[in-house]
Amino acid sequence: MSAAEPSSSRVALSGRRLLTFALALALAPVLLAGCESGESMPVTTDAAPRADIPFPEDWRFSADAEPVTAAEGMVSTTDYYATRVGLDVLEAGGTAMDAAIAVSFALAVVNPAAGNIGGGGFMVTRLADGQTSALDYREKAPAAAHRDMYLDEDGELTDRSILGHLASGVPGTVMGMWEAHQRYGTLSWEELVQPAIELAEGFEVRDRLARSLRSSRRSLAIYESTREVFLPDGEPPEVGDTFRQPDLARTLTRIRDQGPDGFYRGETADLIVAEMERGGGIISHQDLADYETAWRDPVTFTYRGYTITSMPPSSSGGATMALMAHILEKHDLAALGWHSDDMIHLMVEAWKRAYADRNQVLADPDYVDIPLEEMLSRDYARIRGADITPDRATPSDDIGPGLEVGESTETTHYSIVDRHGNAVAVTTTINSGYGSKVTVAGAGFLLNNEMDDFAAKPGFPNQFGLVQGEQNAIEPGKRMLSAMTPTVVADPDGELFFVTGTPGGSTIITTTFQTIVNVVDFGMNVSQSVNAPRVHHQHLPDQIYFENSGLRSAVVEALEARGHTLQERGGTSGDVQAIMILPDGTRAAHSDPRLGGTALGH
Asked: Which of 95, 173, 226, 411 is catalytic?
């Protein structure tokens, strides 16, 4: 998957893709009837191996769900239309990277709560020959940002880092996709942006979008520019309506025709700056013109012989997962039993220590020194986990950071594998659901509220309850720390095995890690690993969160007897999109039924 591939791979999408897409729109109500209720839509009938794992009796998702399987390419996203766009690219001869770019723009149209051109994200790639890369297109603080910009006259935190124009960092998504295309693209940029334009011109609303808009109706009504787009005639679109976004279609057309200059300069940039001036924001023309992505060395570590490749800072995901894995590796989790009180106790104790370090030392590596090598070392993990006792919880107040130094759940993740064996994992966000709630008037897209991912007041919790340190304080041009954890796993023979990731704010790291534990330690297939109930601990507050009916009462009682505090959360945790490569090369995928996404293959 590289720019050096033969030009014959630059297959024109237009005629074939348009026909396929038109058919997909016409058939969507039938095709999605099962997917949106949480059932997979198999492409073949080949069944993947399944572990004998008993989920709790009242748990809502099945351990017997069949993965979607295919011989060549696979795309798994949170939205049918976006998945279909990605599969069209693969079927037209494009690579996983080509499909990832097209999917990103499509999600900006059909999943506005998280898909975006007004936000940012991370991309992890693994080529068929084993080479890996990590692209950081996280937002940056504007040049006029300063450390105490969200404090009132008494030094107390306000909501300005969450709601409104001041909450937005400089968006990175468009430049991120452009840089990915410059390095890896084989189909033309125009072909990959065009499907999103066609969607913006009108698509039939499905249940997932209708529910999302209804549940966010009050916040979407705060700003006039957002009301006009998402609440036409004062109400959100209903299932079956045609949702048209003409301003966004024009913005995407400029991006298609002008590349990043169609966003960071010219008419779109003028509209962004005008919106900032109208609402008291601080993103300037210079901020937009100066934005750059960063190609970084991925975080790579091994866990029980499997090689895990994930994001480095400014993501905290890879390093935090590595520390968790290395602490737990000396314990035989499989022998303890899946979701036994012994297993959960050990995982939670490891998570407490890993998050304590994450919150204290990780930040933008271009601005602060990070003890990353030490955090990734097994020697440090041995020391860090040495005080874990098997029969008693360690209070979080007794766990300080072990290293010294000189995001809402409405993120979205997608996973793609192509016929060559190239894999892409992408997590992207505007932070809270619908970001800052501000739509750029005349441009049709929502702006992020990522500035809340800084430590707006070090030592105090952000909207996800994360208590972060001085390393992540606000500075002009700095990238805010993220929990997004797009991840690719190779088996002990070095072959591609698993692609995974999720949204979920501070729960992203533990959710992603649990999908890996499920397949590596317990032999689950991809559907089981995604459908399994999830637990979470992030050091502070000192609580184990678990999904509704996700733990047996006897396990809850046993953990409480050890000194743990547990809280059953409402709703669900995460929205995993995962692909597993079976021993015969078959791609097996499962889109999380929690939100009703879709996996498709060919």
From this structure: 411
